[in-house]
Automatic annotation (TrEMBL):
It comes from Skeletonema marinoi. It catalyses: 2 R'C(R)SH + O2 = R'C(R)S-S(R)CR' + H2O2. Pfam families: Evr1_Alr. This is Sulfhydryl oxidase. SUPFAM superfamilies: FAD-dependent thiol oxidase. Residues 69-171 form the ERV/ALR sulfhydryl oxidase domain.
Amino acid sequence: MTIDDSASSSEKKRGDQLSSLLKSMGGGGDCDRPACDDTKSALSAALQRVGEARVASKNSTKQSTYTECPPTREEIGTSTWSLLHSMAAWYPTSPTANDQKLMTGFMQALARFYPCTWCATDFQQNIELNPPKTETRDDLCIWLCEQHNVVNQKLGKPLFQCSIDKLDERWRKSTDPKCQK
Ligand SMILES: Cc1cc2nc3c(=O)[nH]c(=O)nc-3n(C[C@H](O)[C@H](O)[C@H](O)COP(=O)(O)OP(=O)(O)OC[C@H]3O[C@@H](n4cnc5c(N)ncnc54)[C@H](O)[C@@H]3O)c2cc1C
């Protein structure tokens, strides 16, 4: 067997493992949400890593020098905004009373426990002045965009145009070919 044959056979094996894993998780149909794409690529990457780790442990006894450090304020900020805008982008169009209550509670908990204390204090004041708008998906997306702009302005960063079209393009479904996975 050549190296090429062996590579394509392990790719096929990974493809089969991926299909059976997705089936066992109840997937397999069309994926609407990006989370589904992410699940596929995360599973595929995990299977690849397992394969590579097996080969590496056979071939080498060297210790990895890679260190994972706690996130910086900037990293936490960017990750948090990504989560918040994505949650808003996929919030129900007609949320139930309970959905609205949970989302408001989530924002309040974030403002209470956000790990940068002075950011948290400002965010608490901001959401007291302008409480979360949770009646519809559009309301929530635009409210959050305005909250993010309050912080952007404070930090001298560019402001984002808070229209639902711009927000969906950035956070829900981009038309940019570079964003197609
Ligand atoms: C609740 C909260 C409060 C914070 N308060 C502070 C603070 O007081 N002081 C501080 O130093 N840092 C604070 N941060 C962190 C700060 O906002 C940034 O996340 C951090 O400085 C990194 O900035 P960035 O340039 O990577 O882009 P980020 O501001 O993290 O933005 C990430 C991406 O979001 C998109 N985006 C930008 N603005 C908007 C918008 N209005 N609506 C939708 N999408 C947008 C852009 O594509 C951008 O690249 C806070 C973060 C959060 C979540």
